[in-house]
Amino acid sequence: MGFLGPNGAGKTTTLNMLSTLLSPSEGTAKVNGHDIAKEPDEVRRSIGYVFQDPTLDLELTGRENLDFHGRLYELDAKTRQKRIKEMLQITKLSDRADDLVKTFSGGMKRRLEIARGLLHRPKVLFLDEPTLGLDPQTRRSIWDYILGLNEQGKITIILTTHYTEEADFLCNRILIIDQGKIVALDTPEKLKARLKGDLVSLTLKETNKIDTLQQIFEQKTWVRHLDSVIDSNIHARESRTMHMMHSHGSGAIDREPMGQLSSQILQDKKHAKSNLKSELTEENENSKIRDLGPKRLNIIVDNGAHRIPEIVKIVDQAGVKLDSVELREPTLDDVFLSFTGREIRDEKGSYIEMARRFRIMRQARSTRRTK
Amino acid sequence: MVYPLSKQAVYVVLLRELKRYWRARARIISSVAQSFFFLAIFGFGLGGFIGAINNSSYLSYLAPGIIGMSLIFGSVSSGISVIFDRQFGFMKEMLVAPVSRTSIVLGKVLGGAFTASIQGVILLVVAIVMGAFTLTPIFALGAVASIGAMLLITSGFVGLGVAIGSKLDDFHAFQLISTFVLWPLFMLSGVFFPIDVVPQSLQVAMLLDPMFYGVELLRWCLQGNGTTLLGPYGWLISLIVLLAFNSLVIGLGTFLFSRAQV
User: Fold this and answer.
1) By the 8 A CB rule, do A161 and A129 touch?
2) Cα dihedral sign, B235-B241-B247-B252
3) Any bridge partners for residue A296, and if so which?
4) Secondary structure letter of residue A320 according to DSSP
5) Distance from the CA of A351 to the CA of which of A221, A296, B25, B230 falls in 20 to 30 A?
6) Where does B130-231 have alpha helices with state H?
7) Exposed, middle or buried by CB within 10 Å (0-12, 13-18, 19+), for B92?
8) What is the dotted CATH code of the domain comprising A193-235+288-340?
9) Which residues on chain B are in Cβ contact (under 8 Å) with A100?
């Protein structure tokens, strides 16, 4: 199960509420059958949480970090030692186990955190952006590891990500969150099936005529789906409040703009032990969206290669200058786009993301200085 | 959220403090050296000029105070280290575990009290080597008692540190705390001069300083007497004040820590 959404969508906030670190401003949810507001202790016992930001004690060794965790979860000495050994082997950290964590590489730290999150055999494992900032090779090995865990069964994994390919690769079900709202929940295959066909992406030189163009294309019977794309870094959003409310809603997804969205998620494919009902709504006060308007149109058609001449002709007749045309298969990125009208990834990096990375870097540096 | 106190959790937080303390040996050395400079320079420097206080050398008057200084600085910083735990994320690891926050605070308090007291004991040995005390069987007994006093003093100040650390969200404020909390607590605790000889307004300020009672208790243990102002039961008064102070600040620390957000 994956939570997919751009930075600031509310993924981590949702996990923090589900893990009892934050109390919901309204409503409640159930994790492993326990109410997060009424039975926080049971909830905490059921979950493992691998946080987005590093949470290891750098002054302790890998083994000591795991031992600390085992004791906090009241594992007896024998079980603790056995499991620590086991987890170190699985995460391939055995030979570095007795080195201080501050000497570990980013990937090793991440693996150690995952090992720690699993040490007490949680029923539900939360992975918050498990591969953020890792190199492709490490990312791949962590992906394989997560898939392996899932195949062994007995554990429900919820991960958040803003990488669509990660969600696509790892998740049985994907929940798309944007600005605190659930916009879609389905399997990656079904989500992608929404955009069956070829994707012709038109980049225009001017933005003002896009509406006319959109109307023309909407009338064509061969157009399966149409999206206009806004560059996401043009957006500046402020003051988001997120509420979590209790509901007994089942699977249906409600797509009213400010409406209440409900979902029943988290049915693990092998052992459907966990059950979580949540309802997310969003209050968007003072939300400012400055945008310079879309300048790209994504058109889904059958047999795209043969449609391109016709499409170019239409654009030409409409008097719009075309910058470039791209033909490809739709990805989950395009699915995200069709739900939210914006691209998820923002290669230039949003302010929040930059600030966060900067903070992690600064922490890493000052760790060496202090103590 | 009410959880029973978890012994394992208290123990493991304590263990972590001890391990981290032991691994930062450079800090132990620098802190002991700093106190040693105070002891040597003021002890011998001011000592020759002041002469004896309460029939004992100035060095022997100064030693319990300097030990107290080391205790208070060590314990308050140890408590404030909750800021660092938050900054470096480790706090989340503790908070998401099924253990009560009271257990975490208690572990912190014990850990901070142990480490700061170890520092105190090292300084006590340094002071003995410097000839601050006459070695008698009674002194030996007092020295043992002083270790108990050290633990008592430090646990309160770790609690104070935790309370401050839970309220601050930024370790740049550490400097401010040092200037406006640590130094006044230290300077007013009667380390350098007896309370009996200062103007009344300063006496009032000193009596309001909890550390004053800490130093007083250490003097009773190590020198066998205290200030004339508190009289022959000064040790008892100090003990009571410290116990009251401890329950207040440890309670406050636990409360503020529990309320603090990740």
Assistant:
1) yes
2) negative
3) A203, A229
4) P
5) A296
6) 137-167, 174-177, 183-187, 200-207, 210-223
7) buried
8) 3.30.70.920
9) 23
Tens of pLDDT, residue by residue over A118-170, are: 899 898 999 998 888 778 887 888 888 888 877 877 788 888 888 888 888 88
Taking each helix axis from N to C terminus, what angle separates B137-167 and B101-129, rounded to the nearest 10 degrees? 140
Flag if B19 and A21 touch (Cβ within 8 Å). Answer: no
Cβ contact B98–A371 (<8 Å): no
In-domain check, residue B1 = no
Q: Tokens 């406006």 belong to which residue? A: B180
pLDDT digits (tens, 9 = 90+) for A245-278: 233 333 333 333 332 333 333 333 333 333 333 3
Express each pLDDT in A55-114 by its tens digit: 999 999 999 999 999 999 988 999 999 999 988 988 889 999 999 999 998 888 988 998
Residues B33 and B31: their CA atoms lie apart, in Å, by 5
Total Cβ atoms within 10 A of residue B197 = 12
Q: Which of B93, B95, B259 to mutate to test the interface with A (most CBs of A within 10 A)?
A: B93
Domain housing B205 = 7-259
Give the whole-angstrom CA distance, residue A359 versus residue A167: 26
CA distance B16 to A57: 9
Predicted structure pTM score: 0.73
Gyration radius (Cα) of chain B, Å:
19
Helix, strand, coil fractions of chain A, as percent rounded to 5: 40, 25, 40
pLDDT in tens, A223-236: 877 777 765 433 33
Letter for the amino acid at B198?
Answer: V
Tell me if B226 is assigned to some domain: yes
Question: What pLDDT sits at residue A366?
Answer: 53
Give the three-class secondary structure for A223: strand
Q: How many domains does chain B have?
A: 1
Alpha helices in chain A (DSSP H): 11-18, 40-46, 62-72, 77-90, 106-118, 136-152, 164-170, 188-193, 210-219, 304-317, 332-340, 351-369
In a domain, B2, yes or no: no
| Least CB–CB distance from B92: residue in A55, A72, A363 | A55
Q: Are strands A47-50 and A124-128 parallel, antiparallel or unpaired?
A: parallel
Check A59 against B23: CB less than 8 A apart.
yes
What are the residue ranges of CATH 3.40.50.300 in chain A? 2-189+240-284
Residue A279: both structure tokens together: 């309802």
HEC letters along B14-32: HHHHHHHHHHCHHHHHHHH
ipTM value, please give it.
0.83
